[in-house]
Amino acid sequence: MSFRWRLFLGVGLSVLLTATVYGFLGYVTFKRSLDSIIADSSNSYKQAALASVDVSGERPRLIPTDSTTAVFSEYSTSRFRVLRVNEPPLEVGGKFPQNLTGWLYINQALDNGYTLEVAFNTNENQSALKSYLRTGFAALPVALGLAVLFAFLLQRIFMRPIKDLQRATQQLSSQAIPEPIAVPEGDDELSQLAESFNRMTSSLQAFIERERSFTRYASHELRTPLANMRVLVEGMQRGITSPEEAYPQLEDTMKRTEGILSGLLTLTRSPQLTPEPVMLENVVKQVISSLCGVEQARVHFQQVASPVVLGREDLLRQIISNLMHNALKYSAGSVEVRLEEAPSEARLTVRDYGPGVPNEVLEKLIDPFFRVDKRKGGLGLGLALVKHIVTSLRGTLSVRNSHPGLEAIVTLPKAILHELKTAKELSHA
Fold it and tell me: How far apart are CA 224 and CA 257, in angstroms?
């Protein structure tokens, strides 16, 4: 039996069982209410009979009053009698029934050897109880139909996200990345499962895109150094190029190839982040202090604020180092580093005073392996790596001409308030 039918039957039986239990409890409650009414009414009738009978004489007499007459009128189908051994009884309301089925029988001893016997009519109450039962049984098919309809609607609602998951997993099995499935409203297990599946497919798609990017970049950028090495090796084999001439070129080509592969691996790999509060000022100062004396003298650090960001110190160091080295490479003069903050983010600006770049190629600067001036050397991966790391830290990178020079602006989310204590401890370490 499929899960859908098991769910359908389970819900249907649950609803039907609930209706049955509710009906039974209603019957019990109704019967108890009727029993209570009968007990109160019969007691009122008995008290009226006691108040209207006089047994002090030789024969019992009926002495009705306005109140007792009203009671007898209200319960006109009931009756009572007063009797003593070997004497004819005094019967009120009609002949006392011989068969007490449908009657509530009550007796009480009186003075002078007399006994009061009451036969209270319960037929109306029994009829009401039977009518309740007939109504309940008549409503049972309706309840069953509603249970089936309710179960059908619920299984449609519950099965919709499961069907979406089934369809999406089938697409995955055929090596196709499915579209994100709809997440049910609420915070139950189904919505959490849908969200987890969407995160999984998103991660899988990102992984595939990184693999495709690696393949695309590798096939494009490794072709030239591999061709150079092949030419050098063939030249040595044919005696055209001497080993003394070929080895330095081979070494340089191999270093360049290693640099390309290392950059590609970093670019196409998603960093495994364990975010922590970091005092950005400390990281900037560390990078500046790692520069040689001449380069340090060219860097001017302007600290407007001391923001605490949520990230990882090694990744932040790589961001700042790449931006500074890139600025120092293309700037003939000084390099300006500026640190600011907004309510929810920190801003790091690295500006050089070089020639800048044409506006038409400004957006291409972040593309992997793009170089404005190939004579400057490098792989053209610096800004691409910065963009990749900044994005993984949920920040942004923008590049613009500043006339003169070029500005690279990095924004990073600030650490939340309860993390600032940790950051202050780090700053004093």
Answer: 10
Helix (H, G, I), strand (E, B) or coil at 406: strand
Coil, strand or helix at 429: coil
Within 13 A of 53's CA, how many CA atoms are on the CB side?
A: 29
Average pLDDT over every residue of 397-412: 86
Full-prediction pTM beyond 0.85? Answer: no
Helix, strand or coil, per DSSP, at residue 115: strand
Helices 3-51 and 123-173 pack at an angle, to 10 degrees, of: 160
How sure is the predictor about 377, in pLDDT bands with cuts at 50, 70 and 90?
very low
Domain boundaries, given as residue ranges, for the chain: 3-125, 189-267, 276-428
Rounded alpha-carbon distances, angstroms, from residue 133 to 21, 30, 33, 38, 101: 14, 10, 15, 19, 20
Strand residue runs (E) in 21-169: 53-54, 61-62, 79-83, 90-92, 103-109, 115-121
Task: State which amino acid sits at residue 126.
Answer: Q
**What class does CATH assign to 276-428?**
alpha beta
Evaluate whether 120 touches 96 at the Cβ level (below 8 Å): no
Q: pLDDT for 71-91, tens place per residue?
A: 888 888 899 999 988 888 988
Give the angle subtended at the CA of 423 by the CAs of 419 and 425, to the nearest 5°.
Answer: 120
Q: Provide the pLDDT confidence category of residue 100 given band limits of 50, 70 and 90.
A: confident
Q: What is residue 88's DSSP assignment?
A: -
Helix 420-428 / helix 280-290 crossing angle, nearest 10 deg: 30
Give the DSSP H or E segment for 347: strand 345-352
Structure tokens, 237: 């084999």
At CB < 8 A and 24+ separation, what contacts does 140-148 make?
140/19, 140/23, 143/16, 143/19, 143/23, 144/16, 144/19, 146/15, 146/19, 147/12, 147/15, 147/16, 147/19, 148/12
Which of 95, 81, 32, 27 lies closest to 52 in space, CA to CA?
81
Task: Say how far apart CA 236 and CA 248 lie, in whole Å.
Answer: 13
First CA to last CA distance, the chain: 65
Under 8 Å between Cβ of 167 and 177: no
* Whether 209 contacts 185, CB under 8 Å: no
At residue 22, what is the residue type?
Answer: Y
Q: Give the model confidence (pLDDT) of 139-193 as tens digits.
A: 767 777 777 777 777 666 666 666 777 677 776 666 666 667 666 666 666 677 7
